[in-house]
Amino acid sequence: MRILLKLLVLLGCGLTYPAIVSAQFTLNGDATALGGDCYQLTNETTFSAGSIWYDSLINLEYDFEIHFTMNLGDLDATGADGLYFVLQPVGTGLGAAGGGMGYEGIVPSLGVEFDTYQNGDYSDPAYDHVAIQYNGVLDHASIYNLDGPVQIIDGTANAEDGSYHDVRITWDADMGQFAVYVDCEYRVGFITEVFDVMLAVFGDDPEVYFGFTGGTGSLYNNQVICFSYTSELDALEDVTVCPGDSVQLELAEGFVTYAWSPEEGLSNPDISNPWASPEVNTTYTVVMTDACGFETYDTVNVLIQTPEFVDLGPDLTLCDGQLWTFNVMTPGATYAWSDGSTLPTLTIDEPGIYSVIVTDGSCVDGDTVEVSYVPAPDISLPEDTVICGLDNTYTISVETTGATYLWQDGSTEPTFTVTSDGLYYVTVTVGGCTDKDTVLVSYAPEPSLDLGPDQALCPGAILVLDAGSDVFDYEWQDGSTGNLYTVTQAGTYTVEVTINGCKASDDINIVADLCVCEIIGPSAFSPNGDQINDYFTQMDCTDLTSYTLRIYNRWGTLVYETSDLFGKWDGTYDGEDCEVGTYVYTMSYTRPDGVSGLTKGNVILLR
Question: Which of 377, 525, 532, 575 is least crowded, fewest Cβ atoms below 10 Å from its Cβ?
Fold first, then answer.
């Protein structure tokens, strides 16, 4: 818990600060981790660019402070271009290289420029300079230049001296003050009354990333930064200790003085890492003073408490034969189980009452649990099934004595009524034992089948019964499996159809019939080739024992004769068209019942 943190940029006072041990940064472009919390943003090559970003957002509603050292290379006249410290909420990218120093174009953003090259396009001065700008615009003559440019090192035009310069950046949220210091000297800054960075740049969104960008163009230099102290990473965290125990409070080293208060319970109030052994809950405050005389404040609460760090969980009901392992691992502790075991884990396979005592320094905690064993439930849902009839229901039952139930829809009854397609599953629990099963239920419409009304069958005739589409499965009374069935004699015929597992059946009675017919002919026909009434033929009978058709003209000449039951006169004689007029026909026949007869009549031939 900290009470005051500031964001400052300080360069070259010869200050040293501790390494950040918990920093997590994302590197882009040519940025390289050098070890010791140092990062090289650009190589000593042309057109190099790199950036590093702290992975977590920081909140500008709270104070923030960062210390780092910066080396801008040792090429002066031929060196370029510099680097930026950046606050931005968007992500961990990289802006334009070269004179853009990896910052140009990052919107929205606030940037602290450390520029070692005079670029006329950006209204740069001749000396190496520091300035504050926003929204990725580098032109010092624009409205996006908030303060500066001034010399990076006060009184010195060149910052490319190969040396590491100390940097400190502070943001005072209450005062709304942003300040940049170089080698203990204030260089640039602003206050909220002049420029409200939260509103103007970040749209009142206080959460931003911080990081560094660097770039070279046709000229180059090494650009290196090393983290020393960052409030976001190095601030003290509250701690809890057991009565009689002590805890070491560890701060960054490298500050000139440390002043802890109150002094009671501290091994030494003037060092960075005293041991705290308070007898009651105590809030310690420390003031850290660096070589520039800047003070950094932090606080930490040390709470006296015997923590409950052992938990065997609630009483257990296990399944017969089931193994269970308790784990109370606490680094540095000793263990005493009720069965005499001294390991941090205990594996059991039988009922009983189990307890453990864990001793960690002066902290002692323990717990007890009762374990019961019961037979596991054994359920089995039906095989995957098809329900015939869209309106039908299907009930599944898994009733088990003493059990609880959980179906796929959250219901908890021992039975479940299915009304639609779906995958249905249930978990049955008895004590701590469970069993589960699944069934797939599909619905299909009930098939329909209709062989039609009963029919009569004439002697010698053939009747084909059609049961429906040939894509389904059929079985007739004699084992036939086609969708069509040929009938040649009277009888009862039955077929069963199966569609998606659903069945339907129908039968038809075929009765014998003598099929007596009356032989007649048309009264007129017109053999003109229009395919309408082009022929003369008998019109009714399809089953005769004998048949003869004769046609005479008005002079009694036989012009056509046939014994074909379906024979047809086309109105010609000896290959010539007959005259339009009236013709006489006779039809002699014998029916299947043995009756013979003769039919006479007139027919008019038309053209």
Answer: 575
